[in-house]
Amino acid sequence: MTSGLSLRTTPIDGLLVVDLPLHGDSRGWFKENWQREKMLELGLPDFGPVQNNVSFNASAGATRGIHAEPWDKLVSLMTGRAFGAWVDLRPGPGFGTTATVDLHPGVAVFVPRGVGNSYQALEDRTTYAYLVNEHWRPDVTYTAVALDDPALAIAWPIPIADAEVSEKDRNNPLLADVTPMEPRRTLILGGYGQLGRALREVLPKADAVDLDTFDMTDAAAYAAVDWSRYDTVVNAAAYTAVDAAETPDGRRDAWSANATALVHLAAVAAKHRLTVVHVSSDYVFDGTRDVHDESEPFSPLGVYGQSKAAGDAVVATIARHYVVRTSWVIGDGANFVRTMARLAGDGISPAVVDDQVGRLTFTADLARGIVHLLDTRPAYGTYNLSGAGDPTSWYDVAREVFVRCGRSADDVTPTSTEAYGEGKVLAPRPRHSVLDLTKIEATDFVPTPVSESLDAYLA
């Protein structure tokens, strides 16, 4: 009988051995084969099992594998003894690494997706069970490797030539002929917008869709996607026409894209254990505070901000989520900086609002920060992410652009929000949009100073 629950690592990254306490008496024994709370605290991934499979082996020598299915599993014995062997069949430096474990009812092994799994029964009537986090489907293909490949040098207790092995497993390829199992991918929603294009630059292996191929507001669109191919979704899609959102049609479209669509995404994320990165906005605040941190309650002024706040609340229900809140986004399309540069070139001297204060965020820096979160995986939650440096008004930014374009800063004149909006239908805007960057900086991400990004952008 084992004495206590404990966790051991192996030479294969992510392959973990769990020692299970067996509580026995004259009648037999009892064990907690999967106890989510205890095992997560121990360090086992929260892999979300959905199916339990049992393989009964009538005679010692029954040998199965080596198979790497596209899901995680937790294997253990109910009766008997076995010799377990695993091979890393994922791409990367660990490819071909092996690990072996003596299996008995007091041991379980967590096998991550892409690691080849095999075992050999050492006693008659050995019962092998495994939890998996995807339902079996007849169309699933998997990677396999030969049990007796000399390159693996697995020391089977019963030589494979003498073991009971299926004809299919006897014809598995040698490691040298195995194509590593493709890892799950990242899907970028809104992949052809300003931020989406920047994300595709830093996530070149990601898939990207936009409204023409995937309508986030249509529940049926989600059912058409093979979500087993993905482990991460980055949502760069949104309705961003702030002023148009105040119209009847705009109000409907803003809520549909920024809130209702995320209900569909959250349901898919829960079902398929996806990590979701969702881009938020300073418009979820009313701007009465000089600086906004991640704990500030929502207080949106207009329809756009209200719909974004609702979407943020939905995303917060996803177990693995990063809400990335940003402000004053500048990308490779039409934007404030480009407009000011054009006006400077055309000899126009504009009046620009000087009572809205914030920091520009360039899409390249925003995309870099998102990749940093996905690479380092800090605690899930909300992270502010904007350009760094002293806060400025739109008027200050316009003056900087004019200077960089060879015009005098004095060619830009200040005006108030009220004066600028006279005669126009404009949505209310927060007067203070400065985001506190302390939390993202604590993850060792260094936001680029706005002045440096502006120089590069206008170069």
TrEMBL record:
It holds the Pfam family dTDP_sugar_isom. Keywords: NADP, Oxidoreductase. The keyword Chloroplast does not apply. Catalyzes the reduction of dTDP-6-deoxy-L-lyxo-4-hexulose to yield dTDP-L-rhamnose. Belongs to the dTDP-4-dehydrorhamnose 3,5-epimerase family. Belongs to the dTDP-4-dehydrorhamnose reductase family. It comes from the Bacteria. It comes from Mumia xiangluensis. Residues 185-458 form the RmlD-like substrate binding domain. Its EC number is 1.1.1.133. This is dTDP-4-dehydrorhamnose reductase.
